[in-house]
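Researcher: Batch entry, complex prediction.
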Amino acid sequence: MPIQKPYAGTSVDRVVGLMNLDNQSSYVLGTDFNIIKITTGSAVAGTNTTLQYESLVDGRVSGVVYYTRLPLSVLQSRTDLDKVDVDSFPTSIHALLPRINAALGLDLATDEVIDTQITSPQLKYRLTITENNPAWLPGSYYDFETTLQNVIQTETGFVFETETGLPFELETN
Amino acid sequence: MELFRLLIESQNFDRPSVEIALDLIYASTGYRGQKYYIEFGLPEFCDPRPDIDYDANTFVPAEVNTQYDARFIGRNGFLYHRLSLDKITISQPLRLWPTSYPFKPVDVLAQINQQLVTQMQESDLLDVEYTEPGDFKLFAGPHSLVWTGSKDFIAMPAGEPQYLFPVQKLTGFTEVPSI
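Model: Structure tokens for the complex:
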């Protein structure tokens, strides 16, 4: 069964959608307004983020909106997420991002997550949000599970399955 | 001149005044000071050559902690160029909605900072009263570390600002229940 995607959409699209939804408007980013700055912290109780925008619409002025960015750890409560296939090493979070998005029901772009080099098989890898993300709290993370292809877990670590049938031992994690 | 042009083109004024003032002093004198060891006094107008753009128009007394920079012993100060408020460019005219008339700039400081993308404080603006709606000028305070001159604005009828997004507290984002 395909996973549900309650957090689908790019982070920018999600925050613009939120601004328009709550204001019953249909302003377009880059045409009607620009995002100037997003800061953690807010003057309004119950929110944790301040977004400052510049109005490009005549008669309407620039201002701020306050809202809540979620930590990526909210994914921990999900029970329907897929594991991410990892079938070659070395690789990286950015290289795996299309698979990560598909497995977790996200649409994160490469500049929204920290690129970590992956050199050895592990059962989990960490996905961390970069600064200035409009929808997710910067620095928040989620440890996603993996399905390691062509790798066998042994008591001492991981070994590759080779074509010759001879295992190639990798470092223990 | 080139450094002033870069500073103005970048429109990077969303910072505390002291940080911008240090940039202006660097652009004027070549001296790169740090805010943690310089304490500024009140700036004063000082423009012996008003016909020359971007030369000094201000003198500010300054106390430099000699532990960090031993070149400044005793009473000192900097001659530097403050920027005119009209160097701040925005895509729309500056419109201000006071809650009532008369009003002073400090009463609408949040609107000013939101529209100009600045972090001005009360001392950056001249303490004058505006008594009716219309076209006016916002004047820099005489002791602003950064600003001189003026900027046009429209005093709107008393009421709520006409923000592009009038609902400021948004409902999201919310965590979806466990699936």
